[in-house]
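Run log // design_07
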C-alpha cells in the first residue's frame, strides 16, 4: 500500500476510524449483544417464568421465532425508511427502539409480555447493520470501503462476548437493562455524524426511493436480490443451529447438564471466532481484490468445519467442543463481506432497503432452517443426520447464488436503479 492510500485509509474524514464507522460499529455491537443474549438467558428466564423441562425448549423456540419475525418486518420497514428519509434517521431510530425494548424486557412478568418485547426488540435490531454498512460504504473511498465495513462487523460481533460475560455475572433481567442503557448512551455520539453525501445529492433529484416492491419488478432485479440473500444463509445454519443450539448436539453423545453457563460459553467462543473471521474475510477481499473469492474461501472452510463438528461429536471433550465452535465461528466471518456485497449491488435509491433486508432475511431464514432440521431429523430419525441434510441444502443454494452473482469490489456507488 503506498503512502497516499495509507493516508486516505486513516484520514479523519473518510478513513476507517471516522465517526460514522465508529458509531455504526458501536451500534452493531449493541445489536449483537441483544441478538444473542436471549439464547444465553433463555433457560434462566423461562425457569423464572415457571417453565421447566421440555417446555423450555418449546417456548424458547417460539420466543426466538417472535424475535426473528420482528427482524423480518423491521428489515423491510427500516430499509425503506433509510432510502426515503436518510441513513442517519434510521440508524438512530432503530437504536432507540431496541434499547427501550431491551429495558422493557428487564421488567416483564409473563410469557405474553416476553413475546411482545422480543418481537419489538427484533423489529428495532433489524435497522442497525444494513443502514450502518450503507452509510459507511457511501462515505468511504471505493478502493478501501471494505476496511470500513470490516471494522464495523468486527467490533460489532464482540457484543456477543460482552453478552456472554454479562449473562454469567448478572441476573437475566439486569443483562437486558444493560443492553438498553448501552444503546441509549450510543445516541450521544449522534451529533458528530453526518449524512452520506451520495444520498444527500440523490434527495435533490426526482428519483423514486425505497420502493421495496421494485425488487420484484423484473427477473434480473429479483434474482440479483435473491442471490445477495442466499449467499449468507449458511452463516445462520452454523451460528443459529450448530452453535446457538450446541448443547442439544453435544448431549446426543454426552451426559451433561444443559445449563446456561455452557450455552453462554458456546456462543461466546463462536462469536470470538466470528470476530477474527470478519477481520480475516475483510482483509482477504481487499488483498484478492474480490468479494466473491473471499466468500468462496470462507464457504469452503465452513463446509469442512460443519462436517468436522458433526463427525467429531462422539469423541469431543467439553473443552474440545468449545474449540470446534470457535473455529466454526471463524468460518462464519464473511458476514461483513456479505452485507457489503448487498450494499454494492444496488443503486443509492434502493441501497439501504437491500442492505437492511438482506441480512435480516438471512437471520429470518433460521425459521426455515429450524423447520427443515426438525423435518429431516424426524424423517431420518437422527438429529445429526437432520443437520447434515439441511446443511447440504444451505450450502448448495449459496454456492450456486455466489457463482452467478456480480463482482462488486471497487464499484462506484454513485448510481441509481
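design_07 sequence
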Amino acid at each position: 500500500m503506498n503512502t497516499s492510500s495509507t493516508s486516505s485509509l486513516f484520514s479523519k474524514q473518510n478513513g476507517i476510524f471516522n465517526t460514522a464507522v465508529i458509531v455504526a460499529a458501536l451500534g452493531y455491537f449493541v445489536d449483537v449483544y441483544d441478538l444473542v443474549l436471549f439464547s444465553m438467558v433463555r433457560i434462566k428466564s423461562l425457569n423464572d417464568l415457571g417453565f421447566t423441562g421440555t417446555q423450555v425448549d418449546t417456548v424458547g423456540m417460539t420466543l426466538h421465532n417472535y424475535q426473528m419475525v420482528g427482524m423480518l418486518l423491521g428489515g423491510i420497514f427500516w430499509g425503506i425508511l433509510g432510502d426515503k428519509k436518510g441513513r442517519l434517521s434510521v440508524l438512530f431510530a432503530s437504536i432507540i427502539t431496541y434499547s427501550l425494548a431491551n429495558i422493557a424486557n428487564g421488567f416483564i412478568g409473563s410469557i405474553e409480555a416476553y413475546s411482545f418485547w422480543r418481537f419489538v426488540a427484533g423489529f428495532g435490531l433489524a435497522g442497525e447493520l444494513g443502514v450502518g454498512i450503507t452509510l459507511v460504504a457511501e462515505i468511504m473511498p471505493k478502493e478501501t470501503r471494505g476496511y470500513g465495513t470490516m471494522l464495523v462487523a468486527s467490533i460489532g460481533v464482540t457484543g456477543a462476548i460482552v453478552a456472554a460475560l454479562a449473562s454469567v455475572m448478572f441476573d437475566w433481567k439486569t443483562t437486558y437493562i444493560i443492553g438498553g442503557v448501552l444503546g441509549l448512551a450510543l445516541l450521544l455520539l449522534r451529533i458528530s455524524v453526518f449524512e452520506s453525501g451520495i444520498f444527500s445529492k440523490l434527495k435533490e433529484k426526482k428519483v423514486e426511493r425505497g420502493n421495496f416492491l421494485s425488487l420484484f419488478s423484473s427477473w434480473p432485479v429479483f434474482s440479483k436480490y435473491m442471490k445477495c440473500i442466499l449467499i449468507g444463509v449458511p452463516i445462520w445454519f452454523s451460528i443459529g443451529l450448530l452453535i446457538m443450539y450446541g448443547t442439544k448436539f453435544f448431549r446426543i453423545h454426552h451426559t451433561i447438564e444443559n445449563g446456561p453457563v455452557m450455552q453462554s460459553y458456546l456462543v461466546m467462543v463462536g462469536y470470538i471466532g466470528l470476530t477474527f473471521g470478519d477481520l480475516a474475510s475483510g482483509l482477504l477481499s481487499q488483498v484478492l481484490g474480490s468479494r466473491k473469492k473471499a466468500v468462496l474461501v470462507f464457504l469452503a472452510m465452513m463446509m469442512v468445519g460443519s462436517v468436522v463438528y458433526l463427525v467429531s461429536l462422539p469423541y469431543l471433550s467439553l473443552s474440545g467442543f468449545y474449540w470446534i465452535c470457535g473455529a466454526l465461528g471463524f468460518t462464519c466471518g464473511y458476514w461483513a463481506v456479505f452485507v457489503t456485497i448487498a450494499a454494492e449491488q444496488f443503486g443509492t435509491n434502493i441501497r439501504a432497503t437491500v442492505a437492511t433486508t438482506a441480512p435480516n432475511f438471512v437471520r429470518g431464514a433460521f425459521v426455515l432452517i429450524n423447520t427443515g432440521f426438525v423435518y429431516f431429523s424426524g424423517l431420518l430419525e437422527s438429529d445429526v443426520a437432520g443437520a447434515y441434510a439441511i446443511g447440504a441444502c444451505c450450502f448448495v443454494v449459496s454456492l450456486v447464488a455466489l457463482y452467478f452473482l456480480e463482482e462488486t469490489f471497487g464499484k462506484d456507488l454513485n448510481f441509481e436503479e
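The chain has 19 helices and no strands.
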